[in-house]
Amino acid sequence: MILLSKKEIVNDVATYFHLVNRLRSKLLDTCLRCSDKDEKPNVNISTLSDTIVILINGSTPYNELNIFNHISNFLTESLTYGFMFRGSISRGKYYTNTLNNSFVGETYYEAAKYAESTEWAGVIINDTLAKDLLENNT
User: Fold this and answer.
1) Whole-number Å distance between alpha carbons of 40 and 12
2) ∠44-61-46 over CA atoms, to 5°?
3) Digitized pLDDT (tens) for each residue of the chain, 138 residues in all
4) Which residue of 16, 30, 39, 46 shows the fewest CB atoms closer than 10 Å?
5) Separation between Cα atoms, residue 110 and residue 116, nearest integer Å
6) What three-state secondary structure class fits 65?
7) Exposed (0-12), middle (13-18) or buried (19+): which is 11, by Cβ within 10 Å?
8) What are the residues facing 56 on neighbouring strands?
């Protein structure tokens, strides 16, 4: 789960959604290329006002590296349009009802806590994901 949020209202809505839709395409392409043939990757991006919630099922080391790269590029490109995001990346169980933009679970709360704790533009990886990455040498 990736949670990105802005501190101020988005004024240029067309550019905002253009950036979000391009990120969605890049993430889905990465997941399709990196997933097992038996596994159908799922990328879901929901926008809630100034917050972007990205849910990705399935993971491989190469997939994660590319996802981090796409998020970094998204943040850089967003800055060129004057959008400053802060956020966090979490791994774990969560429950979602994307039709109603509802997200619950410890993973979501942890992502929100980390995202809100920063005072700078950028993305932080939570402790659970960092530990998993270090243990798996990915």
Assistant:
1) 34
2) 10
3) 666 676 565 677 788 888 989 998 888 888 777 766 666 667 778 887 778 888 877 666 567 778 888 999 999 998 888 888 888 888 888 888 877 778 888 888 888 888 888 888 888 888 878 887 778 765
4) 39
5) 10
6) helix
7) exposed
8) 43
